[in-house]
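Sample pair:
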Amino acid sequence: MEVGEGVFAYLQRDGSWYLNNAGIIPDRKLSYLIDSAATITRTKALVAEARRLGVGDRVGMVATHHHGDHTNGNAFIDPSFLISHAAVRDELKQGFAVPPAGLFTAVDWGEIELRPPDITFARELTLEVGGRRVELRHLGYPAHTLGDCVVYFPDDRLLFAGDLAFEGGTPFALMGSVRGWLACLGELRLLDVETVVPGHGEICAMGVFDDVERYLRFVLDLAERAIDAAITPLEAAYDSDLGEFADWHNQERIVGNLHRAMAELSGTESGGTMDVAMAFADMVTYNGGPLTCFA
């Protein structure tokens, strides 16, 4: 789908676990891709679409963050260079490309190899892509992860938001920070943007960040009450009414989000590493079995 002049969004529906969106910017000299896909099969489909749109052999890539749905296909694509925020290199080493058995329903991932970034930046990096200015921005706080970056096309009023935006799906802050994500939303609202390509879900407008903010504040409120009641994140999730968020897919993420929010509010974590394995185990328990994945 063309979302700016010569800029295309590659959507993978329904946008649930590991079904991410990517970007394709064809150019006769140097094309760019924004993110890859979770499996080799899905990455091959992304490459085929990129070729159809005119992407040649010289390809630069931007990784909006380290999660496998956005990076597992990077080595298969084998770009001329890969750009990311500086935190992504370490996050790739510490995370998992292919989830442990039993965590998700069965997926044929293919032969996944990690491809670390070749170029990193701390806050901002400006590119010229197809004759237009493109700004890569880290918004200064941990959010979905430590190394989230957005890709901003100011002339097109276009933003590839990575997983700072979920349209119709539950945001996930386990590996970042709930409060940091809220701070990032304030920075995003300063941008002149008409069209947002979320990390998951349909093309949308800036209003998507209002939805994300309401959810994150809901999580913080639940976390505060859980701490006061001296109950666990899993118990708090069982006791909660998701209300307006009940129709969003991947509802089990409430458990992981509560793990993060309660740790932050208790002063034990403010972003970064924590017991991710325990949080995922609690999500599986809440879900009544392995998490559903259509990748």
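The CA atoms of residues 104 and 290 lie 5 Å apart.
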